[in-house]
Amino acid sequence: MHQSELVDALGELPALRVEPDGPALVVTVPAIGESLRLYAEAVAWLKRGALPQGAPLLQIVVHHHGQELRMILLNDDVVWQPADADSLLDAPIPVRITDAPELVAYTEMERESAAALRALDGPAVNLDALAATLLLHRCVMVAAMRLGLRPLRAVRRWHELWCAVGELLPGSFWPDPDWDRLLVQAGVPLAPYEEARARDRPAGIEALTPADLRATEPKLTIDRADDSTVAAWRQWMKLTPRQFCEVLTAELPEARVEVSLYADGGGAVSLRIASSGVLRALLELRLSFPRRMTYLDEIRIADEATDTGLFQRLMSNVENLSRSLGLRGIKVYATGDGSVAFARAGFDWDRGAPE
Fold first, then answer.
1. From the CA atom positions of the chain, what is the Rg in Å?
2. Residue 323 · residue 253 · CB < 8 Å
3. What's the pTM value of the predicted model, to 2 decimals?
4. What is the Cα–Cα distance from 70 to 58, expressed in whole angstroms?
5. Which domains does the chain have, with CATH numbers?
6. 73 burial level (CB within 10 Å; 0-12, 13-18, 19+)
7. What is the per-residue pLDDT across 287-324, written as a single tens digit (0 to 9) for each?
8. Nearest Cα to 92, choosing from 162, 158, 161, 169?
9. Which letter does DSSP use for residue 123 in this model?
10. DSSP 142-169
11. Contact predicate 321/338, CB 8 Å
């Protein structure tokens, strides 16, 4: 969809204020004192409609990090689809909220977050039910945050409820620097590790654009160098693309790297070294920022490149990259030639990594 088409559609809700901000449109809903960001190229579907009382509305489906999110814009409210609980919770088994609403309004979120706190002080409080409510509200607020909303009052209430019943959840939440920063904006005191996660934003990360993701090609090629990948990079990475490339390819001038980064904090890295079309070395990594681990899936060194120090250089660069990204260990799953190479090199590949 073209931005002009989206502006025309939003114009049918006269109470909203719409202002361009680069490729985004900042849509402010004065009735709730909130703004969200819409990218015309991310709009997959838009339909005009009306409430039973006749008030106009816009139904919108947007692409966000490989997913489709549904939302409804009104003159005085915003309605959206909560995030999936299983994507937020680090639990030993999949977690689903079976009676979770498909869509939640901003005004409803405000009302229900206040009601949950009142229930905590009630005479017959059900702590297990409140823990389920806590999880649902986190799903609602994370989805709101992804749209650019900042529900600070609801976040403060959520944190107060979490302090009371958070230990009853079936697992802990995955690390989320964006959520930590939202807590800071809401005036919530953070634990030391949360503070570090919230403020540790290297210069250049917040200002990244899709053009920056493509600037290091062909040395470093980033899959889907678009706004969704920029958002994921800002959330999870501690290095700019150029820094990432410099660390992984140090003293390897012929190396070429391909990177894929996903909204859930997972990533894949492939490094190849070839001379005149002949492969000399291959390195395949997976990154997990929520688990703070690097997984080495494959490493191959051509026979003619053995005993040249190439293997040691590759592993040194992997270790330096992992440390620079804040990952705490390297797990090796390479088999065959990779395992033989590790046995010969004697690389202490699992130091500091948890079992």
1. 24
2. no
3. 0.58
4. 11
5. 1-80 (2.30.29), 108-200 (no CATH), 210-345 (3.40.630.30)
6. buried
7. 988 778 899 988 888 888 888 889 889 999 999 898 88
8. 169
9. T
10. HHHHHTT---HHHHHHHHHHHHHHGGGS
11. no
